[in-house]
Amino acid sequence: MAPASFELTGEGPFQRFIVRYRADSEPGRDKAAVPARLERTAAAAAVSPPPQLSWQRRLAVDADLFTAERPLDRQAAISLMRAFDDDPDVEYIEVDRMKGIDPIRPMPMRGD
After folding, report:
1. Mean pLDDT estimate for the chain
2. Nearest-angstrom CA–CA distance, 82 and 50
């Protein structure tokens, strides 16, 4: 088995994911095709029972946000992500995480 091209940090639970399909693939061209592909990929994952995945929206980066109906532990998330990683139409799969920057530090006021 080839090494995974995704990274999963933390123990979970994991429930929100982002997948980007190749632009020339059916789900990459047409977001209406994504829900059926999500269902097919969930069925192919080694998770019992297979999670029910719900497409949420297409993001500005042309990736799709989806959720699992139940939180997944680390092993279930890895199995699901590996199923996406094995799909030749998938560019990448990642957990949807809150991303941010360091807190804004107040700048000292200049005295005139």
Report:
1. 87
2. 14
- Exposed, middle or buried by CB within 10 Å (0-12, 13-18, 19+), for 32? exposed
pLDDT of residue 4: 61
Concatenated DSSP letters for the chain?
A: -PPPSS---SS--EEEEEEEE-TTSHHHH-GGGHHHHHHHHHHHSS-SSPPPEEEEEE-TTS-EEEEEEEEE-HHHHHHHHHHHHT-TTEEEEEE------PPPPPPPPPP-
Q: Tell me which residue has tokens 């139940």.
A: 70
Which residue ranges make up each domain of the chain?
A: 14-95
Closest to 77 in 3D by CA, of 14, 7, 29: 14
Quick check: 9 pLDDT over 90? Answer: no
Instruction: Please name the fold of domain 14-95.
Output: Alpha-Beta Plaits (3.30.70)
The DSSP bridge partners found for residue 31 are: none
Q: What pLDDT, on the 0 to 100 scale, is given for residue 90?
A: 96
**Which tokens go with 33?**
């095709």
